[in-house]
Design goal:
- With 337 residues, the chain is an alpha/beta fold.
- It has 13 helices and 12 strands.
- The relative contact order is 0.13.
């Protein structure tokens, strides 16, 4: 730990390593000069080396896994806090870090509005065939009725899987479009959902059977891994759309490919009509190229979270966690350890 006259050294481990805005935030909160940010750019999904961690009491990390040997590297370097610029922490061994005396914080809700907007954009893209029609035009066609028939959102049913911050932002937008919103969220009561203008489905199958669009908003936990698989896709309407802005591993990609292929082969009588995915199961490597290039699938590069406002919220929340621990000696507000 530095003396009273020395600033606390914090590794700012982001994709661009630029500390300009982060230092502005520190100054705005009276922490300028008390925290020394060491900016370091890195490739996604790479952990800092032991040498890069030397002398750092905390690390603010973007797309930074801390698992396996990296846990010991952080602890051995004297890192007291890992402030992850994310909501999910599947890339962090939180328990093992805690056992080595390293706290972990995250940034819940920082991009809820952005992901909700992206989910609705993907839904409308599928329903209006925006990407599919554009592909036809790029291929030399000019057919306004290319592909599947179009229905207005008004009167359609949107099924939300789980009901956290993001789904709560989706619901009023869908209702403004005239959609009925049904939710499967085991921990939410019918009364709580009714207050948000939604109906409760008692089971996932119940939600899948009645939804024209199914949108996933669940965390990746053991119970939600491959949550949408062969059975669930068979339960869905053959005219239904699947939207996933949650984790890629929540969908069985092999089963989804079968359902999409069945729709094409049967002219829409079997399978599901189309899917829009912002996440894939293996994004860092071995991405599912068949899904990416499938004629009934739209894929975006895990970009639902992205906006200038969300990026600033990430910096604010991560820096607040660091300042709370290092300058005030208190547990960070969003500490998950």
């Amino acid at each position: 730990m530095p003396s009273n006259s020395e600033p606390h050294r914090v590794l700012y481990y982001t994709l661009d390593g630029n500390t300009r805005r982060a230092n502005e935030i520190l100054s705005e909160h009276g922490a300028g000069g008390r925290i020394q940010l060491v900016g370091l750019a890195h490739e996604p999904f790479r952990s800092p080396t032991r040498r890069e961690l030397e002398g750092c009491e905390a690390v603010i990390g973007e797309f930074m896994p801390v698992i396996g040997e990296a846990v010991d590297a952080f602890a051995d370097a004297g890192v007291r806090l890992v402030a992850s610029m994310s909501i999910g922490l599947n890339h962090m061994d939180v328990e093992r870090l805690a056992s080595r005396g390293v706290l972990v914080s995250n940034c819940p809700g920082y991009c809820a509005k952005d992901v909700a907007t992206h989910a609705m954009a993907l839904m409308l893209d599928l329903m209006r065939k925006v990407t599919f029609a554009n592909r036809d035009v790029l291929g030399g066609g000019w057919d306004p009725k290319v592909g599947h028939p179009v229905h207005r959102p008004d009167g359609q049913t949107l099924g939300l899987v789980f009901f956290g911050r993001i789904a709560r932002e989706v619901a009023p937008v869908a209702r403004a479009l005239g959609m009925r919103v049904v939710v499967w969220a085991p921990t939410k009561s019918a009364e709580e959902l009714a207050e948000a203008g939604c109906e409760k489905a008692e089971t996932l199958d119940e939600l899948l059977r009645q939804s024209d669009v199914v949108s996933l908003h669940c965390p990746l936990i053991e119970e939600t891994r491959d949550l949408i698989g062969k059975h669930e896709l068979e339960v869905m309407k053959p005219s239904a759309y699947l939207v996933n802005t949650a984790r890629g591993e929540c969908v069985d990609e092999a089963a989804l490919l079968v359902a999409l292929d069945e729709s094409v082969a049967s002219c829409g009588r079997h399978g599901i009509r189309a899917a829009a995915l912002d996440t894939l199961a293996h994004e860092a490597r071995e991405r599912n190229e068949r899904l990416i290039h499938h004629p009934r699938c739209v894929v975006t590069p895990h970009s639902a979270y992205d906006s200038l406002e969300a990026a600033d919220a990430l910096r604010q929340m991560s820096l607040q966690a660091v300042c709370k621990l290092l300058l005030e000696g208190r547990r960070p507000t969003w500490c998950v350890s």
